[in-house]
Amino acid sequence: MRFLHTADWHIGRRLHGFDLTQEQQAAFKQIEQIALDEKVDGVIIAGDLYDRSLPAESSVAQLNAMLQQLNLTDKLPIYAISGNHDSATRLATGTPWFKDTHFYMHTDLKQAFTPVELPDTQLFLLPYFEPFAAQEYFHDESLRTLELAFKPIVEKMVAQFNPAKKHLLVAHFFAAGSEQTESETKLTVGGLAAIPVSMLQDFDYVALGHLHGKDALHAKKVRYSGSPVKFSLSEANQQKGIWIVDTDPFELTFKPLKPLRDVQQLTASFAELTDPTFYQPLDRDNFFGMTITDNKPIPNLLTSLRKIYPNIVSLAHTDDYDTGVGYKGESGAQIRKQDPMDLLSHFYESVAKEPLTADQRKWATDALKIANEGKQ
Amino acid sequence: MRFLHTADWHIGRRLHGFDLTQEQQAAFKQIEQIALDEKVDGVIIAGDLYDRSLPAESSVAQLNAMLQQLNLTDKLPIYAISGNHDSATRLATGTPWFKDTHFYMHTDLKQAFTPVELPDTQLFLLPYFEPFAAQEYFHDESLRTLELAFKPIVEKMVAQFNPAKKHLLVAHFFAAGSEQTESETKLTVGGLAAIPVSMLQDFDYVALGHLHGKDALHAKKVRYSGSPVKFSLSEANQQKGIWIVDTDPFELTFKPLKPLRDVQQLTASFAELTDPTFYQPLDRDNFFGMTITDNKPIPNLLTSLRKIYPNIVSLAHTDDYDTGVGYKGESGAQIRKQDPMDLLSHFYESVAKEPLTADQRKWATDALKIANEGKQ
């Protein structure tokens, strides 16, 4: 069978305050067209359909229309799960009525153990869940982490494997070994959500959501599709798209999506950025993260740049930037090279006009030690 | 055909801070049982399913479960519309999938003109709408009020009447002539939402939502079902319930609902209220609005009363109550009898230690005049 694997639509998300509704819509139209052109047997959406548990009305209207288009107009089966950004309860609205048109939306852990039975494939749809839900479901308080909870979950799924069929898993978590980018880092609750890829070997394919880059994980049969739209500057260099998954024989094909307005990082001097020979080849409607290489302040910098680049999402300076404010000319880079205890001593002396006492120095050293241990 | 007519569930509503989830659930179970016992051909819910456009997750879960129970488990058709308290957009989630199981949820004015065609009945489901929606739909800016908009709406419906069938309208507005109670007064936008009952004469029955008492309107074939639960003290004396509507021959039967905890108004002295012979016959789990007839302050009044009546939702004093604070012993009633300009003069003099100037007196008189005109 052939599936389209996408995830992390995050409908309602903004890019540094810029509305992405049109970008989302453009990506959706491409996904829809690929699904139709490739004659897929269904569209897998691996969680985080919304950006927020309480989406705005406009986001609700947008996602409702997309799902209706795919399932009711295009007659494409949908296999979806809720992600950590979704409210499982809100996303569950209407789902008991959806199955008649082959639209499966699983939002509750217990639904994961009833696979969708297709002619030659069993599709297990595992929504995002907290360890507490697994503790409740298995009546086992020892399942304190996602990894611990995952073992009985996989076992229970494997127990229902029909050996004559392929076995697909759709899930939403941080698979160990994946590399993360800025925009989803904050979504991961510490190490809680890390599942070793080795635990997924029983499946013929695992369609993951959560990380926004398709290259976050390079396991052969465990993949992130990534988001269809770039949601942060750290995703500027990612190629967004979807996977076409053929199950027999197994084959993965990446189909890129063309962004409506791309997200780009520019590092240049003010003179270069405002030089027509520099900017004329660029698509200036794109969203730009800019790093200015000048090391002296430029008056009305952002205003001047916005006349050329209307969608600047961030503006930074390279490390040798001198603000002109006389604090001994230390740059961020220089400060970061100093010993934290020296920095604290100097700061304390300049404020309190007396040196740290021996006790204070000991407390600070202990606190620093604890902080450093927490990093590892 | 036989329908059950209910409305104004207001899932998520609280009574002066008290949770009504259990009351709502108890009322729902009775409605469900009546629908099954009476073998109705469908359940009409005439708007305001939720109390808020942005219902809490727990409210979403509760309403979703109710609708699923009625439609998917009990196999009862549902004919519902959005009310002014609902977010039409949010309530529309999933609705395109519901029709296969005879669950109609109209949330958009344009849906009102496609009646649900039943063997001998046409059911027009008109969701709550703002005049602006009618202006857009009919491309007619003159439709500035609900009453103006209602004329072309009814005409368009009547144009689709199949004379061989009965014609039912489900709607959510304030029908002129209805008497209102406190809890929905604030929901009505001035006179905007008033529709004369005479405009509804083309229909064999109009199942209304919006007002919370079944006796708000006594037209023969235009009825409010009222809410299934008492939502304010002003509804204390209402008998809550639902209508069983037989269309041929036309017959209306009111089926009362038994409240889990009732809402009651008590007016008595502290001595009476704390006398076991007074309170023992009462169901003290009820919600009580209390008016204390004592005219002197009683220390720890509310605390003492709550030991006997745990669910006191409001506490008031009769008009002859003397707070003991020495402001010449004027009661609210006495103050209301005084001339507003005299009151202002006295107040100003007591605060500013000088009389109003002629200018000030004129400004106040003008302002009072404008305020009085606004009342009419």
UniProtKB/TrEMBL annotation, chains A, B:
CDD domains: MPP_Mre11_N (cd00840). InterPro entries: Calcineurin-like_PHP, DNA_Repair-Maintenance_Comp, Metallo-depent_PP-like, Mre11_N, SbcD, SbcD_C. Coiled coil: none annotated. Keywords: DNA recombination, DNA replication, Endonuclease, Exonuclease, Hydrolase, Nuclease. Residues 1-212 form the Calcineurin-like phosphoesterase domain. One of its GO terms (molecular function) is endonuclease activity. One of its GO terms (biological process) is DNA recombination. Residues 259-350 form the Nuclease SbcCD subunit D C-terminal domain. Heterodimer of SbcC and SbcD. SbcCD cleaves DNA hairpin structures. These structures can inhibit DNA replication and are intermediates in certain DNA recombination reactions. The complex acts as a 3'->5' double strand exonuclease that can open hairpins. It also has a 5' single-strand endonuclease activity. NCBIfam families: sbcd. PANTHER family: COMPONENT OF ATP-DEPENDENT DSDNA EXONUCLEASE (PTHR30337), NUCLEASE SBCCD SUBUNIT D (PTHR30337:SF0). Belongs to the SbcD family. This is Nuclease SbcCD subunit D. It comes from Lentilactobacillus diolivorans DSM 14421. The lineage of its organism: Bacteria, Bacillati, Bacillota, Bacilli, Lactobacillales. The gene is sbcD.
